Amino acid sequence: MINNKLADVSIKTKYFRIIFILFLAIMLSGIGLFFYINNQQDKLKHDRGVLQHKTETINELAATLNDVFFRARGYVALKSDGELKLLNAALTGLDGILEQYSALNLSPEEAQYRDDLKLFYEQYKTKTLPEAIRLVENDDYTGIRNLSQGGSTQALNEFLAYTKEFKSSSDSKLNAMASQSIKQADTFTFIAFGLSAVLLLFFTLMIWRMLRVVLDPIVKLEEATNSLAAGEAVLLGKLHKQDEIGRLYEAFLNMARSIQDKEEELMMQNEELHAQQDELQDQQFKLERSLSEIESMMKALNQTSAVAILSNKGVFTYANDNISVYTGYKNAEIIGYTFRLFELHNISDTQLEQIIRKLSTGGVWSDESQIVAKDGSAVWLQLTVMPYLNDEGQIYQYILIANNITSMKSVQQELAETLKSTEQTTIMLELNNQLNHEITYTLDKQEFAEKFSRFMNRLYSFDSSLFLLVKDKISVVKGVPQENVERYIDANNKDMLYRMSTEKSYIVKRTGVPREQGISAKEVYCYDFYTTVVNAEDEILAIFCGTRIGHSFTEEEISEIQGMMNRVALAIERLFMYEEIENGRKLNRDIVNNVNEGIQFVNTEGVIQHINKALSQLLDYDVWAEGMLIPKEQWMDHFTLRVNESEEMGQFYQKAMSEHSVDSSTMKYSLGKEAMKHVDVYAIPVFRREARVGTLFVHRDITREYELDLMKSELVSTVSHELRTPLSSVLGFTELLLSKTMKPEKQLKYLETIHKEAKRLTELINDFLDLQRMESGTQLYNAEPVNLSETVLSVIDQYKLSGTHHILLEDEALNAEVEVDKDKIIQVLTNLLSNAIKFSPGSNEIKVTLHNERDSVMVRVQDHGLGIPKNQIGQLFQKFRRVDNSASKRIGGTGLGLAICKEIIEKQKGMIGIDSVEGEGTTVWFSLPVLHAESSRHEEEPHKWSADKEQKPNVMIVEDDYSLSLLLSEELKGKGFRVTHHYHPQKAFDQALKTPFVAIVVDLMLGEELDGWDLIRMLKNDPRTENVPIVISSALDKEDKSMMDKVQKYLTKPYPPGELSNTLQDIVQIELKTGEVLFPDSGGTEQ
Amino acid sequence: MQKILIVDDEDVLRMLIEDTLEDLEDVEIHTAENGVEALTRLTSDPYDLVILDYMMPEMTGIEVLGELNEELKNKTPIMMLTAKAQEMDRNRAREAGARYFMPKPFSPMELLQIVEGILSDKQ
């Protein structure tokens, strides 16, 4: 970049720059040198001054010192005061000079002298001199001598010596300085000389360089000019300069280039001229040669073809011999005649006009043409006509070339005819092939019929047709509406078939119906061709009927069609066969897929050829699909790993598939861990014509049998155990009674035990048989509408006298109508209640509640007994399962009760369950669907106090007549009360303390110990219950007047239940409104 | 004085066996109504015969035997009383250490004879 830039600067500017820089350099170095020399000279002068000054000072010092000593000695010697005065003056002078000396720039040695001098001066001035003065005044010359001999003079003498030395040294120094100054001047001269020499050198160098820059291109230019002059190619590289030279260079280069270009052009033109000349010569040569060629060609042409020349008017002006040979006209008969002499057979006048037009525009016409020879025979000529144009582009003559192609033409025609027949045969063959192919590969009858029909229509050009497969009534129709044909087939099938069974094919000629007549004016005839397809047994398989309008059938066609029908017969039979096989196959597949057993067929290589659905589900293997082959390696692992007995399974498969196994073998395996499936598999080798083709494996799910087996053996062992225990007691105590003598009490006890155990045995057997009957399905249920409330009350009523337990019923089921077998439900309730009593030895109360839940009624039997361990609750409905602890064992039982209950309830569409907390009690519940689910709900609404069950007013009925109790409770429930039943006054009282009742209905005639009055007394005497309204329901008249003021209502039996409910409703409504206890005054029996 | 322990969960059967054996001279009869009670009695007192029911709740006779050490089982004759009369049950009882086996229902007199035999052998 920099170089380029430099190169672009013009030479003038460059020179100017160089001179300027040089001038600047000389000026700067001259000034610098001048100042430097001046400076050096000044420094030298100054040094000299200093040295001179120093020398003078030292000399003066020395002189003053000498003066001091001279005066001192003078004083000592003369003892004159004048001398003393001079001495003091000299001392003062010495002091000033010493100061001057001190101010000088001193070397360390001189500084030492200065200090010594100062010291000496001080001593001398302060001590020695006053001492000397004193001694002199005392005239103590010995003292003075001593004093002068002291050390003080020593330093003085040294200094004096030094001054002398210094003087000489300063002199020599000055000399040295002078010589240094001269030397310096020499050096400066030398530097100045050197500098000017360097500058000169630089200047020369620059000029030389400049010259070279300018000269080189000029020399090159000169060379180029020379070479240009010499006509040689100018080879000049580009000069990358923009200065004067560069531009000159460029200009020269352009000039040279343009000169060269022009020269080249000239050269080229010259060459071209040469080439043209050569070409002309060549052409001339060629022309000559082609002339001779044309001549020989003409000769040849004359030999082979007929050649004629016609004028522009179409008149023959020349004709060679061959024309005469072809046409039979002599040469003279042709020349001078127009071309119309020859009749052109295959060219019409319009075509001729077109040909002439074409020729007149300079075109060439060539074609085959038939003309009539002189003897009248037709001659085929290959004609070529060429117009000849003159210089103005106008036609002045035509050349005609003709070749006789008559013989060729006839061969050609023959060939064409042969070809045509071959083509027809080919088409026929192709169609036949196609038919064969189609009927071979079509397996669908409809498709087959369609294809065949299409084929026939195409091949024999039927206008309308019908193809009917007789058995399947599959028809394909062309040209007639399908439904017409179907109608026809339905109606006339038999007639048609009748004629066809005797005649294989026949043709009917008839006049066309209007549809066939179409727009034809004449009457048209239609030809119906009927033919049948029969099998080997002469059974008609299919019918073909085709109609052609206007033309009949040739013998050839008829026999062809019949041949075709024979082939079609085979195809149709094949179709039937295929369909049968296919149906059979499908049936087989459906059978195999619908059996419960898993089926697997494995060929001799161990490849699975078939697996049915059951097996793929059983072993969770859905890889196989119809027609698939799965090699052993792919399925074996899946199968064996799936089952729990993998190893055995693998061995079983291997063994069963081996060639040597000829008998069937079986094994059992299981699947899964939790819900285990048990499967029995047997393998049978399959043979076809004594050759082993594979092995069939049949897997049968025997889980149910297995479980049943297991259950059965368990049952047998349990039953035997359950029977043996009471049997042991019966037999054992009997034996004891027989073999031992004992007290009558003991005998009685034994007998009682025997009786009890025997009863237990009977119960057990009954229960067991019951259950067996139920499970086997032979138990019949006599379903009838039952009021469950009533049933529950009646069952509870039977336990009233048992004494040990009090059973309380809380009934709030509005709809307790169910359809069940009453006896069975009583059995269930009895069972549940006796269980509750049995398993709650520590408590004496059992609570039964009834309420509606959705569309069912729920019965709960709740005890406060032993309870059931949580993990055993689920098992209790199984046979012989009792709560497994000693406490319950002591209670005894068959262990079948709950199983029977479950069976009964579930058979009647109900549900049963247990909730229990061990040690607190058990609730067994069951629910049954109510009879009129929907209607009950609507009735329910208006009587409801509140939707919330908890807020239903609670009424207690204390009544020992269960039918009356039921009657009242039904009425009260209908009015929206919750009813609690009690029959024991003490229990009722205890209950009243626990539960808030809106009212208590009391019957006066209760048990033996306590009666209704006792209960009322207890209630009224207790502050917790004294405010509960009491309604007396009794057959007795009010007798105990003392209590009557405590009673809200006295109803004398019999009374309508509505009266009780009205009374209670009044009580409750008043209470709900105000919370007060009021005495309703309705009815006439109140006090 | 020899000691017999009767272990059965059924009151009636305990009573039957007790009454059957009550006439034996110089024999003290103890009863236990479940396996746990039986084990405490067996470990605290040496017995000359144990009559053990097979089917008991919570702990079966076999389980009781399983809890006992070999020394005690060798020393004490054990009679398994069971309603499970199959050969398999018998074998199981034998393997567990029961030396005698009495199927239910049994004859009290036969039981008495066998017990007498065992006790006299023991002496």
From TrEMBL, chain A:
Superkingdom classification of source: Bacteria
> Which lineage ranks, top first, belong to the organism behind this chain?
Bacteria, Bacillati, Bacillota, Bacilli, Bacillales
Q: Which Pfam families match?
A: HAMP (PF00672), HATPase_c (PF02518), HisKA (PF00512), PAS_9 (PF13426), Response_reg (PF00072)
Could you tell me what this protein is called? histidine kinase
Every HAMP domain range = 212-264
Cellular compartment(s): Cell membrane
Enzyme Commission number(s) of this protein: 2.7.13.3
* Membrane topology listed for this record: Multi-pass membrane protein
Organism whose genome encodes this protein: Paenibacillus phytohabitans
Q: Any idea where the PAS domain is?
A: 290-344
Q: Which Gene3D superfamilies match?
A: 1.10.287.130, 3.40.50.2300, 6.10.340.10, Histidine kinase-like ATPase, C-terminal domain, PAS domain
Q: Where is the Histidine kinase domain?
A: 718-932
Where are the annotated coiled coils located?
A: 256-290
User: Which part of the chain is the Response regulatory domain?
Assistant: 954-1068
The reaction(s) this protein catalyses: ATP + protein L-histidine = ADP + protein N-phospho-L-histidine
- Which keywords does this Swiss-Prot/TrEMBL entry list? ATP-binding, Cell membrane, Coiled coil, Kinase, Membrane, Nucleotide-binding, Phosphoprotein, Transferase, Transmembrane, Transmembrane helix, Two-component regulatory system
Q: Does the keyword Nucleotide-binding apply?
A: yes
Automatic annotation (TrEMBL), chain B:
Cited Pfam families: Response_reg
Keyword tags: Phosphoprotein
Could you tell me which SUPFAM superfamilies the record lists for this protein?
A: CheY-like
Report the residue ranges that make up the Response regulatory domain in this protein: 3-119
Enumerate the InterPro entries for this protein. Bact_response_regulator, CheY-like_superfamily, Sig_transdc_resp-reg_receiver
| Residues recorded as bearing 4-aspartylphosphate in the entry | D53
SMART domains per the record?
A: REC
Which segments cross the bilayer?
none
Q: What is this protein called?
A: Response regulator
